[in-house]
Design the sequence.
């Protein structure tokens, strides 16, 4: 009897194990019809709700001005960071401004359809904005200050600006960010969604929206704790000649969920990931040493398009840092080449290759200021003697012979901070500290945990961190204006929980004027003059200094299965934004199987 | 005592463990006298493979000697364009449809191969034509790098180097220099880590630091465990209940989780090596306490203990003279194991990114942590940055465990030969 019982128990255990294993087996996707992505999705996804930002479904929902991911939901325009232009997606042709920049009119492509076959209309766009206002989601909080309403007039979308007291638009540039970031949802579906959640904002934002209507080329296929996958909608409207003229090549888009970066990297090396968004130290070893079929946008350093600039900010509340010469001396003494070599393993152009300014290294932005006019102000780093001379001339010298300079009789002692575990930033701060020691300023490093760090540097006033790191605005339609603003605007002074910029609380009236003028200026020569002046002020005053250039998104491809990815100078003008973001999705229409 | 020591050193296991441990310890003590460089000094850029690095500038100024190596020319060709690269060239030429009859990867055919390559390779053409086997970006990039290195090697052989001031002298292919006559030559037996630090120097320093951490942690854990165990076991009653309640609490909470939580909460600024060692010590005394207690319980009713009690000796004296000597051998063995687990605990903590400040001091765990963060075993292929560290950790705990089992063999009557 006992034996029988034991046998039954053992059998049931074995059976349940088999059942569990069977249930968890990843869905079999044909390899040569599937493009696998990596480095985007961490942890299981929740749903497909385009209004919400808590779906953790990054392949379907990644809304950003630098280029939203449009495989499932689509935006009106796609941003291309290579040329800084907006390309129409759901929109038909260019947007049209009225004369005083208070209204923008956009036509919708007649061919654009939802997956249920109904056309995408201006009413859908208006309903998307109205729903955002109703549930106060990220779209609402991001653009509420600039957009008064979105309406459907005669089949076209009319976006009206919030006006200042004197009747001017608050900021027309933010319209471009709205166009490239906002996913358009279907009016009929939005009505259902709001109705079934009784218009309760929290319930709407937590609705997984498994029945959502989408206009993009891919729809939901698999979503479990190991994989998210999307299948091509073969009736996708974009095969119309007015858009792409064909379907995207891969039938499936999939992203396996990995435990950590290392696991994903191993999968990438093994060819289980085709397109990878991960910082890989010394990535050139993957092909030069290991001979793997892996490539990046460029074959040589910096391998990608660097569009953002991790920056060290000076805290203007610290007396020593209120002295311009101290700020400039520190910035001049830092060995940026070592930061770029060690922290970024050369995946950034140096400050000799791309001299510092308020612009990122893309050609579009570099053309927007007068290089010769700021030449004398630019510094490439490791200028210890120059920095010392600057401090000496300002009368900041070591009077008591302890090896450190004093200001008003007090030793200049500063800390250099960044979050603990952010390795490349930590390595950079070590080098900043070393620079300080070299010129007689006692700079030491401090690495608080991110949970603490984020609460301190975003405060309206703090004296805990003297020199600290964060990134300004990257590449987006409103750049480089948005970067000038995030470097120096007094809009952010006195604002608690400030994530947007000017973390060191710098104030300059002339810069504020420039920041106000640029959005309302359309003459190119005038714009260039304004940006040049902004750069001059930034380099002369040094309220902060960038430590490196860095890609917004890392982009590396393994050509085991697919090839034909964007590469520099291929004439396609497709940015290396992981074949899915902004205009980068054009890559999905260009890839082909290896050997075909 | 002398006899015990003799017995101990007669145990082959103990002896082997002891020798390994002493070798490590002596290296840690003596090495800094030979290499005085700051172990945290960043020498160069990122990971550099092990080897001897000569300054090109100084090599140019070093005295030259004439030497005629018969295989010199072959070595040179092989180094400039390795055989596998020639195979790739040949494959490409075949695909492209060039006439490759009579051309091979052999050295005597290299000139023909190069001529054929130059006549046929054109970057734009490769990109446009999508030749079979060379259609992907990675494959085309490989060809382009190959072409670049071919052009570079030709330039190098035609180049004349400037020697000394002003006068340009063609360097002959029979000129040699002596390594130790170059003014600046750096020997890096274990290469450099991600910060460009000399891994060997750092490793030796880190081993010393980790040994100190292990020693402090082991001492704290053993002392704490000993005191708690002795008191609980000998006094018994309510004292035993209370102490064992605390010990049980520590037993049911996984030690490592506790360690992580405490360590995380002290913050990085306070994480020196002493704090690290103390925290490890305070979380690992439980098992020592429990075993000491059970041994003491078995001892406390022995005749000689009762006799001491009757004689009116103090608790302190009874514990110290009548009980401690009987469990001393066990305590020594427990101490050795505690040292070993202390070193391992530090390595684990630092590997998780909870170690002491990187710029203050190197530890074995920190070295592994940075190696991991900079992809030493995934993308950077820098085995030298982590493998020796693992080796040292393994050797230390291996030697300590050997010593422990050796002692066990000597002291445990059940195991005694």
Sequence:
């Amino acid at each position: 009897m006992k034996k029988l019982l034991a046998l039954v128990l053992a059998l049931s255990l074995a059976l349940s194990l088999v059942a569990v294993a069977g249930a968890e087996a990843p869905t079999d996707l044909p390899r040569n019809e599937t493009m696998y992505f990596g480095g985007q999705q961490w942890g299981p996804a929740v749903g497909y709700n385009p209004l919400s930002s808590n779906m953790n479904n990054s392949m379907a929902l990644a809304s950003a001005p630098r280029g939203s991911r449009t495989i499932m939901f689509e935006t009106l325009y796609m941003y291309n960071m290579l040329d800084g232009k907006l390309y129409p997606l759901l929109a038909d042709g260019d947007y049209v401004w009225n004369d005083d920049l208070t209204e923008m009119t956009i036509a919708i492509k007649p061919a654009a359809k939802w997956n249920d076959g109904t056309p995408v209309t201006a009413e859908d766009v208006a309903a998307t904005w109205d729903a955002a206002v109703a549930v106060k989601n990220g779209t609402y909080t991001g653009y509420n200050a600039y957009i008064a309403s979105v309406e459907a007039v005669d089949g076209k979308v009319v976006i009206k600006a919030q006006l200042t007291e004197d009747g001017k638009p608050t900021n027309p540039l933010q319209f471009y960010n709205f166009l490239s970031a906002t996913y358009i949802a279907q009016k009929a579906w939005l009505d259902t969604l709001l109705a079934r959640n009784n218009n309760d904002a929290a319930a709407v934002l937590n609705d997984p929206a498994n029945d959502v209507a989408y206009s993009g080329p891919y729809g939901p296929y698999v979503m479990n704790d190991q994989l998210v996958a999307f299948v091509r909608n073969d009736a996708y409207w974009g095969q119309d000649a007015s858009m792409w003229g064909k379907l995207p090549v891969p039938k499936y888009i999939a992203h396996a969920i990995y435990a950590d970066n290392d696991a994903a990297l191993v999968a990438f090396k093994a060819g289980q990931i085709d397109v990878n968004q991960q910082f890989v130290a010394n990535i050139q070893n993957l092909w030069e040493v290991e001979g793997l079929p892996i490539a990046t946008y460029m074959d040589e350093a910096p391998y990608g398009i660097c569009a953002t600039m991790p920056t060290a900010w000076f805290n203007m509340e610290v007396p020593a840092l209120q002295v311009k010469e101290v700020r400039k001396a520190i910035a001049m003494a830092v060995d940026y080449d070592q930061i770029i070599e060690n922290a970024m393993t050369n995946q950034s152009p140096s400050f000799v290759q791309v001299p510092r300014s308020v612009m990122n290294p893309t050609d579009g932005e570099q053309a927007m200021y007068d290089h010769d006019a700021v030449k004398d102000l630019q510094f490439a780093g490791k200028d210890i003697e120059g920095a010392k001379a600057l401090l000496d001339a300002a009368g900041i010298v070591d009077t008591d012979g302890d090896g450190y300079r004093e200001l008003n009789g007090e030793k200049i002692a500063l800390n250099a901070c960044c979050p603990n575990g952010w390795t490349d930033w930590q390595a950079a701060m070590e080098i900043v500290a070393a620079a300080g020691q070299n010129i007689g300023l006692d700079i030491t490093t401090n690495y608080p945990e991110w949970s603490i760090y984020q609460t301190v540097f975003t405060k309206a006033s703090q004296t805990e961190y003297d020199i600290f790191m964060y990134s300004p605005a990257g590449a987006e339609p409103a750049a480089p204006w948005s970067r000038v603003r995030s470097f120096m605007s007094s809009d952010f002074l006195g604002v608690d929980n400030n994530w947007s910029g000017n973390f060191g609380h710098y104030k300059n009236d002339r810069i504020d004027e420039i920041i106000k003028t640029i959005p309302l200026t359309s003459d190119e020569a005038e714009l260039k003059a304004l940006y040049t002046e902004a750069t001059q002020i930034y380099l002369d005053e040094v309220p902060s200094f960038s430590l490196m250039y860095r890609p917004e998104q890392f982009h590396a491809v393994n050509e085991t299965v697919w090839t034909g990815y964007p590469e520099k100078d291929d004439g396609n003008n497709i940015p290396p934004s992981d074949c899915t973001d902004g205009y980068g999705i054009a890559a999905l229409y260009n890839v082909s199987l290896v050997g075909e | 005592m002398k006899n015990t020591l003799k017995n101990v050193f007669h145990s082959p296991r103990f002896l082997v463990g002891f020798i390994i441990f002493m070798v490590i310890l002596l290296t840690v003590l003596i090495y800094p006298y030979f290499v005085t460089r700051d172990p945290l000094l960043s020498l160069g850029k990122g990971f550099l493979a092990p080897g001897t690095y000569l300054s090109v500038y100084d090599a140019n100024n070093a005295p030259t000697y004439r030497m005629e190596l018969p295989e010199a020319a072959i070595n040179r060709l092989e180094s400039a364009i390795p055989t596998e690269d020639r195979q790739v060239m040949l494959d490409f030429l075949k695909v492209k449809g060039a006439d490759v009859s009579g051309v091979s990867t052999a050295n005597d055919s290299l000139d023909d191969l190069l001529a054929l390559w130059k006549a046929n390779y054109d970057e734009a053409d490769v990109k446009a034509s999508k030749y079979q086997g060379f259609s992907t970006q990675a494959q085309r990039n490989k060809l382009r790098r190959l072409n670049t290195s071919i052009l570079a090697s030709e330039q190098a052989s035609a180049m004349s180097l400037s020697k000394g001031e002003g006068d340009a002298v063609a360097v002959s292919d029979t000129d040699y220099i002596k390594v130790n006559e170059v003014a600046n030559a750096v020997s890096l037996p274990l290469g450099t880590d991600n910060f460009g630090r000399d891994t060997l120097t750092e490793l030796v320093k880190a081993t010393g630091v980790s040994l100190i951490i292990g020693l402090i942690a082991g001492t704290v854990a053993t002392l704490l465990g000993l005191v708690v165990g002795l008191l609980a076991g000998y006094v018994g009653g309510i004292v035993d209940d209370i102490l064992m309640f605390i010990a049980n609490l520590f037993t049911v909470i996984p030690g490592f989780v506790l360690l992580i939580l405490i360590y995380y909460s002290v913050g990085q600024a306070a994480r020196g090596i002493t704090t690290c060692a103390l925290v490890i010590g305070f979380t690992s005394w439980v098992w020592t306490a429990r075993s000491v207690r059970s041994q003491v319980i078995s001892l406390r009713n022995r005749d000689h203990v009762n006799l001491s009690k009757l004689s009116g000796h103090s608790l302190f004296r009874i514990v110290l003279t009548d009980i401690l000597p009987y469990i001393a051998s066990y305590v020594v063995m427990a101490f050795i194991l505690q040292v070993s687990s202390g070193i391992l605990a530090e390595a684990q903590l630092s590997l998780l990114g909870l170690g002491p400040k990187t710029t203050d001091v190197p530890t074995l765990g920190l070295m592994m942590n940075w190696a991991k963060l900079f992809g030493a075993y995934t993308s950077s292929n820098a085995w030298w940055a982590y493998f020796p560290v693992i080796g040292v950790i393994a050797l230390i705990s291996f030697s300590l465990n050997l010593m422990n089992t050796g002692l066990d063999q000597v002291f445990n009557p059940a195991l005694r030969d």
